[in-house]
Fold:
Amino acid sequence: KKHLSWTQITLQVILNLLGAEGNPNTYRLVGEVMDEDQLMKNAADIHILKPALNLFQIYTMFYFTEYKRVVDIIMENEFGYFEKSIPGISMLMVNAFQSAISCIKMASKTGRSKYKTMAKKFKMKMDGWVKKGVSTNSYMIGAWSALGFLLSSAHSLAYDKQNPNVLQYQALVDAEWLALLGKNHEAKAKYEVAILLARGLIQDQATAHVLYSDFLFSLGNSTEGVHHACLAVELFEEWGAMAVVDQLKENKRLSTMFL
Structure:
């Protein structure tokens, strides 16, 4: 039953990213395959179900820039909740990255120190992984890879002293962190490093272009901002996430580019 539930959640994430459901609330895992509210009612019977659902909710919300909702889920649980509940899965690296970025975005938006403190915890965790190297087991990696063309760059095991699956995430978190601190020149260099490190990882490179575009617009550099946003659109289209593409195209800064 737990494997069926995990498969249902994964499939619903894909449908949301594809835009196949016609659901205006694309960040919510509600559609043909499952209803997140109903699934949560069954969580008491399957201990892995709540953390699995929360993990995929964060994953989906992040791509639709629902950063406040991501942070709300983080705050509902203790730090390290996913590592304790479902240890060893490759998505923990992605989750730490998405959590860090979401906290930084909320710190930038609200100026509240609690979000900055939360972001720093995730940043330190990722820095530690890079420094020490990360060893994850193979649990669920096969299933994650099997998502096919949409999730074509599933994260592999890291056997080297430095985890290659974390480097692009670390660079992006560093870039956002530096931008938060107002160190714009250093941040710009880090964004460009992150884009290079993410080559071959379609969704990560697309995300890097989105974040870099937002940063450039914040500096008033609309020419480069539009350029990187358009690159993000192309990459998300290649990945198959058409609902994300539609949201990017609806952005008021870009809407005239796609008429």
User: Anything to note?
Assistant: The chain has a mean pLDDT of 85. Residues 91-110 form the longest helix (20 residues). The chain is about 65% helix and 0% strand. Residues 145 and 152 are 7 Å apart (CA to CA).
